[in-house]
Structure formats: structure tokens, C-alpha cells
Specification:
Elements lengths: L2 E8 L5 H14 L4 E9 L4 E5 L2 E5 H4 L5 H12 L11
Parallel strand pairs: 1-2
Antiparallel strand pairs: 1-3, 3-4
Length: 90
């Protein structure tokens, strides 16, 4: 299955750097599993992480940004549930 991840970030809030850093972390960790990663400009304080058309993290719902470790675990649980993430699992 082709796995596609998208991060929608608020341009008004200048969250491109945060979105790109998260993208880099996920691509480094899941370079074999992810077929596509996209950054999508949004507005209104949005910071949503969407995997295979399903929102797995929403800043508006959680009231905070995801931690890198947390995001890696969320992605792993969807696309490679048996994979050990090493220090990110501790």
C-alpha cells in the first residue's frame, strides 16, 4: 500500500519551519514506508497531520503541537505497527 502523509500548517502563524522539521523527522524514520510527504499551506492556526487521508493529529483538537516522538509513534501505529522505534519508544 502506498502511504501518503500531509502536514497542513498555518501560513499566518509562520509554522512552515515547524512543519518542515516534522516532515524531515518522519521521512528520516519512515523512508522505506512513506511514498509521499507533502506540506500544505493553511490558515487560522491549523497544524494537522494527515496520513492516508485520515487526520492522526490536529492542533485545534489537542490544543498543542505534537512532540516528534509522539508523531512517530502515531505514524508507526498506522503503517508499521510491529516496528521498533528505538529511543522513540522509551
Amino acid at each position: 500500500m502506498a502511504h501518503k502523509l500531509k502536514i497542513v500548517y498555518c501560513t499566518q502563524c509562520r509554522w512552515l519551519f515547524r512543519a518542515s522539521w516534522m516532515t524531515q523527522e518522519l521521512l528520516t524514520t519512515f523512508e522505506q514506508e512513506l511514498d509521499e510527504v507533502a506540506l500544505a499551506p493553511g490558515s487560522g492556526g491549523t497544524f494537522d497531520v494527515i496520513l492516508n487521508e485520515k487526520t492522526i493529529f490536529s492542533r485545534s483538537e489537542e490544543g498543542r503541537f505534537p512532540e516528534s516522538k509522539e508523531l512517530k509513534q502515531l505514524v508507526r501505529d498506522q503503517i508499521a505497527p510491529h516496528r521498533d522505534l528505538g529511543h522513540s519508544d522509551r
